[in-house]
Fold these 4 entries.
Entry 1:
Amino acid sequence: MQFETLFTLVGYIIYTVMAIVALWGAFCVILVWRRVSTTRFRNEQEQDAFMNELEPLLRTRAYENASALCDDDSRALPQLAMFAIENRDMGPQRVERQLVERFQLDVLSDIEHRLSWVSTVIKSAPMIGLLGTVIGMMGAFANLSTGSKVDTGKMAEDIMFALITTALGLMVAVPLLLCREGIALQIRKMEDLVATGMTRLMEMLR
């Protein structure tokens, strides 16, 4: 009876931990997705529209108006453009180097840090499910080792618990894995767009 009580308690703990891990993973995915969405332009046409609005201001050296235009936009490229405009006296090569560093530190590092939590959940969920599998099989074998009449109902419950925890671990990990890959694709698109935008920006400032 003591073993049965212990296995039952451990089962509740595993279910609780799995639920917490799943909620945390979903929360992190939402945070990262929102961060990426608010940081990048949705497509090249939208970015080109911003650059076309910025270009005449830089060509006519209306730097205050250009800074005001960038300041009103919280996305990565406008903020980088505002930094380049405010520090244009440093020289093109130094400004371009500073832009790359700021993009890496202020944008990509923050996103990658949040995305690392999603990766942690993806790795942890199957391991927690595997722990449940081991616990369930231990309960089933404990029932067999009693030496008395085997309780087939209890044994079936233990095996079912083992299978359920394994399935839950995969059900948590697989959707999060797909979400992470989708976010990674959006990040790569953002990097390409920002690289194109920074090249055009430096040509304007020269």
Note: The CA atoms of residues 90 and 171 lie 53 Å apart.
Entry 2:
Amino acid sequence: MRPPSSTPWWDSPAPSSTRRSPAPTGCGIGAAGVVDPATGAVVSATDSLPGWEGTPLRAELERRLDLRVTALNDVQAHALGEAVRGAGRGHSSVLTVAAGTGVGGALVVDGRLVSGRRGAAGHFGHIASPAAVGRPCPCGGAGHVEAIASGPAVHDLYTESGGLAADTREVFALAAAGDARAATAVDRAARALGVLIGGLVNEVDPDVVVLAGGLADSGERWWSAVDSAARGEMLPLLRSCPLVPARLGADSAIVGAAEAFSRDHPLTKATS
């Protein structure tokens, strides 16, 4: 990614208390569901968001805010934020994989999000996984990565083995404390995610892979299993590809959505 010719808006000093803040010139938003990049409308959403599919997100926000709006998927916004300002900054090709309640991600090349024709690119969790054969997926299908590598899947794997835990966080705590069944659940999920990542690296040959989402904060055991499985799946030539944690936390989607707006409306960047 080429360095900016001048100080980018996100590095500008915050306005002092004696200086009036500029009026907003637009709005970037990252939202759940598949957001069509051409229309800014939600064209697909899961059953967990009833009535969300079909929402004219960009048009409705422009009407209510009386501002120009750029809308994109929240995970894509997260990935763009990490690529331009976070763990991927300075790299021309950044693959972000987010694992938490679900599994998703995005590819950013030369600062541009690869969103696909309908905005659906990055549904990595719905790639078939040999480790998930027969396991139901939240999308309505079965055998997908999300069915075994997501946070809820870790909890399911543990309870299916006879373990008792209130949530996924407790499964990780039990694994760290030496519970063999919890450790097995964590390892199975992490290895499945690692195999996915290795396959994606073989496909796109990125400069760096950024791991994000709640599971990326779960500790060394998960990271080690993901990394080992990923490198075992990668072509020998690509095994030096770094896997790094996301840096921006909850701010990444905000940064990415703002960046997407500034790319759509470049004349507003200087005054944002």
Note: Strands lie at 26-31, 34-35, 42-44, 68-73, 93-99, 103-109, 112-114, 208-212, 243-245.
Entry 3:
Amino acid sequence: MQAMSEQPNNIRWYYEGLSKGVFRASKCKDCSKFTFPPTGCCEHCGSWDVEGAELSGKGTLLFATHTGPAASHPRFEKGGPFVYGHIRLDEGPIAQAIIQDAGSSPEDLRALFEKGPVPVQAATLQMDDLPVIAFKLKG
């Protein structure tokens, strides 16, 4: 994890990173906490003194669910149904993202739940218009 020179309030900076497999957040210079996805101010203390930071992409899947029959956005119509999860990133923030390599049936989701928190690694899922962050199950 290293500090980045670009400003995190530039959304293009975030998506350009994703397209290269680089996962970015903002890091507060006052409280040292991370905000993901990156914003122009710290979500923890409200400071505007933030800088761009690169995340490890490692985290823990806390829980998962699946989409219904309708996609949440037209960019997701081709690939569904998706499994979505809440991931605690190793750097602290909670991310909501697609979980790859997880079945969407009730039985698959129950088995995943019964495993308890599961380690995951971030990946980039290239859609027709923009890359999106997704996570792959580890182990």
Note: The chain has two domains: 3-55, 58-137.
Entry 4:
Amino acid sequence: MLTKRQNLIETIRGGNPDRFVNQYEFMNLIMEAPLGTMAGPGQTIKNEWGITFSWPEGQIGGFPVHDDEHLVLKDITEWRKYVKAPTVQSSDEAWVGAIEHANSVDRNEEFVTGFIAPGLFEMTHHLMSMEEALIALYEEPEAMHELIDYIMEYELEYAKVMIDKIKPDCIFHHDDWGSQKSSFISPEMFKEFYLPRYKKIYGFYKENGVELIVHHSDSYAANLVPFMVEMGVDIWQGVMTTNDTPELIKKYGGKISFMGDVDSGVVDFPGWTREILEREIERACKNCGKHYFIPNLTQGLNFSSFPGVYDTATEIIDELSKKMF
């Protein structure tokens, strides 16, 4: 029987996997790294960038607060006045939990995985609201180029420290690039503003010992897949059914792999049932096949919004592996 790591490699390289890669099993996520303050359920917090996040009780996630009182970036043409990157924590004391966790991982079995969120696009709209960020790409492109470069340089500084402290084999990087039906910006605009910066970020990781880049975008982004390939993404996690995953595998398999095709919104809700999960996961596995595909809830971490959904999905994937391999 292959290890989780070996089975993942066989799957994404079109080799001889002996079972489906089961969701996040190959990534041992090092969540103790000092990435910044994040809101939990029922909390309102201000993070190190000055962005206020609210996660109302009873909701499945949080989002930045963008009223006049809490908006960080009030004028993109004066972004230097408003946006101040926090200091990247580099002391062993700040990283002690992450270092201990990374050192405990059997790297023959799993990938030591660094977690990054938010990404370049998300950070722009966290600072200034989605509407203003999208408008600024059209009306103030020069200032937006400067701002995205500034965010990129912070990411690269953090990457240097992370690589030094935990020597990750894999990076799991969040940046949602679309809605369920379309990308937020056109491919042409994505190519201008985001592709060059992601090539630098992901290239830096690859040049410094990182074997796998897993990019999360639980959205439609089929029109951006060529850019994902160019920037060095190995696995797109969060691929929704609206992307036509089987067709993407036919077209791009061997260049990039796809993780998801089980829409969280369809299976992860208060009235979820095992039967719904069985239907959706079996459809995904039969349609997408054994190569370049990892069955997974489109959720951006290894859990579900409602108790039992993720674990039940894991059980069902194991059962399908026994039937289909």
Note: Strands lie at 27-30, 44-46, 52-54, 63-64, 111-116, 170-174, 212-216, 235-239, 257-262, 293-297.
